Amino acid sequence: MAKRLKIGDIVEIETKKGLAYIQYVYHHDEPPRYGRLIRVLPGFFDKTPASFSELVKQK
Question: What is the mean pLDDT of the chain?
């Protein structure tokens, strides 16, 4: 069973350029319902970072 995302969660995506990350930042539930908003975190990585705290501070 898939894990249900919570605001603030970070998801890893494998790409041809390396690992990329998105962060679930908002859920618009009022009409009209736009749904989930994600943020694409900057950069590509060869391995999973030990900490995401500095990465999420970047614009």
Answer: 93
